[in-house]
Amino acid sequence: MKHRTKHILPKKLFFLALAIGFLLALRWFITDGMIPGFELGLRWIFFLVAMSIGGLGAFVTYFEYHGIGSQEGIVRRGNRTSHVAITFDDGPHPKHTPKILDILKEKKVKATFFAVGKKVEKYPEIAQRIVNEGHDIGNHTYSHKEMAPSTRKTIMKELSKTKEAIYKTTGVISSLFRPPRGIYSQASRGLIVDELGYKMILWSVSSVDWRRTSPNWILNRIRRYARFGSIILFHDGGSSVKREGESRINTVNALPMVIDYLHSQDLRIVPVSQMLDGMSADEDEFSFFDEPEPQPVSQKN
Questions:
Q1: What's the total number of domains in the chain?
Q2: CA dist., res. 171 & res. 132, Å (int)
Q3: Averaged pLDDT in 10-residue chunks for the chain of 301 residues
Q4: Structure letter (DSSP) for residue 21
Q5: Is 180 a member of any domain?
Q6: Residue 207 covered by a domain
Q7: What is the rounded distance in angstroms from the CA atom of residue 180 to the CA atom of residue 144?
Q8: How far apart are the C-alpha atoms of 155 and 3, rounded to whole Å?
């Protein structure tokens, strides 16, 4: 999961809770024995500070699931045609990616795979199969290194090594990039988009499959949030983030149901490159706060 200005990572939410607990304990220590009126006022101050910290944590964690982009060259959805895009991060994986490719082939669906460079080098035959079967392959850095905070030198190295690995393996020079966990800064955006010429692809719907959720839970999430132009995030690889584990069997098992559901709603699944071809230049820039609520797809049985 997962993408935007730098946000508080879930592994750090423990420290957020610790900070709130510390403030509450400090409030009790300071106000013990004070005159009632002054104590009440101070308690309100500590309460508001604690609520502000908690609210900030909830706000920034929200974007882990949804991604956000508001600058030129960043895309988190397509236009309001009947197209949707299914994307996979963190592969190739020797077990899960081939199974996903088998399903996509059976369902006659093309998807987009944002590949980690060192895994492309380790499993070149799978990367080659992705391309041979008509799917997009994009850059997801060489070692799943977050783009913020990060130095210019590190970003250049991560992207160039992955670009080289993909080209040597598949012959493809990809202009698609997705930052690990969707995290970027203004500086990294400028380097990656403006200087290196990549399209930074985020997402509008996360399957949250890294949570080890059940296939039916994943399907219900897609049913709830998928709309015209959605870019849907899945993962074919694991262990890029320790707490997320390696198994993506629930993703594999959910995928046929997700595809069947999207087709039942007259949504055409296309690779990201095809979705971009149908977008005008001014649709590249997207602001979460300015986006009107999309019309829901029809509810067919």
A1: 2
A2: 11
A3: 37 57 59 55 66 65 47 83 94 97 98 98 98 98 91 96 98 96 88 96 94 92 95 86 70 98 96 85 41 36 37
A4: H
A5: yes
A6: yes
A7: 6
A8: 16
Would you please indicate which residues are annotated as catalytic (active-site) residues? 89, 235
Is residue 138 included in any domain, yes or no? yes
Instruction: Specify if 152 maps to a domain.
Output: yes
C-alpha closest to that of 64 among 144, 126, 123, 6:
6
Asked if 55 and 92 sit in the same domain, the reply is no
Q: Where are the alpha helices (DSSP H) in the chain?
A: 13-31, 36-66, 96-107, 117-122, 124-132, 152-170, 186-189, 215-225, 249-264, 272-277
The pTM of this model reads: 0.73
Residue ranges making up the domain that contains 164 = 74-290
Residue 232 pairs in a beta bridge with: 86, 205
Query: 155: which 2 tokens?
Result: 């970003």
Tell me: do 98 and 61 sit in the same domain: no
- Distance CA(175)–CA(243), nearest Å, equals 30
